Amino acid sequence: MKLLVATALGVALLAGCSGGGSPSVAPGVPATNAQHVSSAFPSAVSETMNPNHFPPVHSSCGNHVRIVVLGIVDCRFTQMGNHGGAVNIDTSHLMGLATVSPTSGTTKTDFLVTGVLSGQGYFIVETQTRKLRVVVSVSL
Fold first, then answer.
1. pTM as predicted
2. What are phi and psi of 123, to 5 degrees?
3. pLDDT (tens digit, 9 = 90+) per residue, 20-38?
4. With contact defined as beta carbons under 8 Å apart, do 124 and 57 qualify?
5. What class, spelled out in words, does domain 53-139 have in CATH?
6. Alpha-carbon 41 to chain mean position
7. Which residues, 6+ apart, have CB-to-CB distance to 81 below 8 Å?
8. Mind listing the pLDDT tens digit for each residue in 69-108?
9. Is the peptide bond prior to 30 cis by the omega test (within 30 degrees of 0)?
10. Which end of the chain is more exposed for a tag (fewer CB within 10 A), N or C?
11. d(Cα 8, Cα 97) in Å, to the nearest integer?
12. Where are the domains of the chain?
């Protein structure tokens, strides 16, 4: 029994001393070289998910929509290489100042922005690879 406890304690001490508790240090690499390990071996997931590898989303109505109460602006959102791809609109930051209809479609869908109350907010246009923030200013 004493041997089992001593072995477990020894293994725990060795694991603590090897640098295994730090996620930035690769096993068997001294801690002094840790900064070189993370830059020399970039994560494959971070490279493929980096949005800068994809073209930006463009808005036919610009990045700042100015509209009057009860006014309507027609917008279309495109992205090079995303012909007919899905587009979703997050209107949670408009705070009731304006509506966007419909809230999902494709790059060929016409989205209508309608002014409801005076003020300023924004909505997020999201494709499969990128996002675009469109500020909406509604005036009387």
1. 0.62
2. -130, 160
3. 444 444 444 444 444 444 4
4. no
5. mainly beta
6. 23
7. 54, 55
8. 999 999 999 999 888 899 999 999 999 999 999 999 999 9
9. no
10. N
11. 63
12. 2-41, 53-139
